[in-house]
Amino acid sequence: MKFKTRLVVAFFTIILIPLALSSALVCMVGKYQLSSIEKNYGIKNTTVESLASSVTVLTRLTEQPYRELEALIRENPEEMEDAAQLESLNGELQDKKSYLLVRKNDTIAYIGTEASKAEKVISQLPEYGAAETTSENGMYLGGKAQVLLKQIDFQYSDGSEGSAFIVTNVGSLIPEVKNLFVEIIVCIFLVLVFTACVLIIWIYRSVMGPVGKMREATKSIKEGNLDFELPVETDDELGQLCGDLEDMRKRLKNTAEEKLKFDKENKELISNISHDLKTPVTTIKGYAEGIMDGVADTPDKVAKYVRTIYNKASEMDVLINELTLYSKIDTNRIPYNFTILSVNNYFNDCSEDLSLDLEAKNVEFGYFNYVEPEVKVIADPEQIKRVVHNIVNNSVKYMDKDKPKINLRVKDVGDFVQVEIEDNGKGIASKDLPNVFERFYRTDASRNSSKGGSGIGLSIVKKIIEEHGGKIWATSREHTGTTMYFVLRKYQEVPVNE
Description:
12 strands, alpha+beta, about 500 residues
């Protein structure tokens, strides 16, 4: 879930959950308190709306006492002079948060509370017959009194005017109403706390879970440990960040592995070059000492020694050139000079050079060209020559036949020119064939081989052909021979419409 979506959900959660839970809790608490009020005070059909008004509640509290008092006065008004009866009536009213006042003519005959508390009410009592109140409504006395007054006028047996007043203090609420308001506030508070806790837990788990995993991942990366996996469990922004961190880890791991491989290859290269330089250096040193010590005591011997020294120095030069070219390949700095070449002319010249070199090494050479004279390619002549000579030299190096033979074939294969270099050497095992173009790969694992070589010749060949937009591969049969193939794209002139 995206963070924008989470914010929208959180917004509606903050609104809807408190509303729903508060409403449910208020209804439950309200019903409980209403039932308590109805049970304790004898009020019927009480609603939450009626409890919202203290005057309404207090009016309803004294409905039943009003009716009872009214019935008593109607039947026997003389009871209003009976102190015991008045105390009994006042006791019932006190349970309703009210008290009784009785007036005879202009004299207060009975006060159901402390006189000091009733003074402000007595001073504002309406005259006989001036108030029209019922059981369901009363008269509000403001000012300093702040009471709800219900008046019942009657006449004593002697003809005196009497008034009975039920006085209710509107400044106080019944305990159940107070409790209701307190419980509503507590319920709303608890709902808000519950909603906040739910949101905090939800946000904490959705944010801190991925953040914790990313912290562990960065700690592992910092310590150099890249052998772990950071799973992407969500599709939100943190999930995307986890994915980016996992991609970074993979790239760092690949880079580290490539560096280890590169360092290993460099060490192997140095080892190979050192091994291959040791033999010609030893030979040169030995023949030079022979000349200095007078072992070569004839002009022919001296010439032979010098020629041997020159040949070994040439071998060293080839190795050094390979090392230099390898460095340029590794940094993509091979100096290519592409030009349009006639396939026939180029490979005819190349075959002549190969023929002379191989003849000197007692290797039979065959050249077969099946390409039309007008066929051309775009290539670097020096680099393609390097490719052909590297392959041929590699074939000669591993030749094991008494009558060695190498064939060069050039064919037209549609949009490409295919060059095949075939030998009748010892061949390459099928398990080794896919790896022959890798750097430093040798089918002979022993470094004590007399064949020598840096192990980068065929990797240089592959790099050059691929930089020409071509492809190189090999086929081989053990004890029969190997054939190397590479293709170069033809040069085709595109006619310009005038």
